[in-house]
Amino acid sequence: MAGIGSFIIHLKRAEERAAQVAALAEALPDPVETVAAVDGRAGEGGTEVYDRGLGWKPAYPFPLNDTEIAVFRSHRRAWARIVESRVMAGLVVEDDVEVAAEPFRAAMALAVTHMRPDLVIRLPQKPRETGAVLAQAGGAKLILPDVAGLGMQATLVGRIAAAKLLRATARFDRPVDVVLQMVWETGVEVHSLWPTGVRDISGALGGSTLKKRKGLAARARAEWARMRFRRALAEAARDARG
């Protein structure tokens, strides 16, 4: 079984990101593979996998649009490739990411030292998580977050963890990063690193492919629902830790 491989999720029609994909291929650990993203705008979202009646707790307060479903299915494609490639772990990176060489190298060195096939290690772009420090080296810290943060810009996914995530998400009712927070549902432990050298540059590449909710009143209602969900999620995480 090989060690670490890299998997860049790339939407084929996003031609303005081709140069960035090439730059990532040079910066990420070899071997590097490009995974074709599911295109929600082209009707590839596959809404049959989206099920708001799953009964996961806490209940997710928002419906997913076609693009969010497609993003989830794109990450599932990457997880499937990790399993099929039989690497110990795969670094899954979205195509609107840029990495700064030195902090990224230090973060990956720490990650590889502590990586297991049944683990996910997040490489977030911002330090939004709190939790116990598990290890540190080269200026980077590895933590066990109280609740994993949001964002899927870069995740190191173990082969066993990828298989578990695929089984747990054959149907889903919320975004992929929210599912990773729910370790009591997936059975997959999640750690996080900081600093990582990872930066989202979607603004410089034509903007995010995700749709935004509009309208002041709608945003206020959404923020209230989001706050209540985060509180319930934190309570569920505490209960799961015992």
Task: Kindly describe this structure.
The protein is of the alpha/beta class. The protein is 37% helix and 23% strand. It has helices spanning 18-27, 66-85, 101-114, 159-168, 176-181, 183-186, 216-241; strands at residues 2-10, 32-36, 87-94, 97-99, 119-122, 131-137, 140-145, 154-158, 189-194, 198-200. The strands form two sheets. It has an eight-stranded mixed β-sheet with strand order 2-1-3-8-5-9-7-6, with helices on both faces. Strands 4-10 form a two-stranded antiparallel sheet. It is globular. The model has no long low-confidence stretch (mean pLDDT 92).
The count of strands amounts to: 10
What is the radius of gyration computed over CA atoms, rounded to a whole number of angstroms?
Answer: 17 Å
- Structural class call reads alpha/beta
Task: For the largest sheet, list the strands in their spatial order.
Answer: 2-1-3-8-5-9-7-6
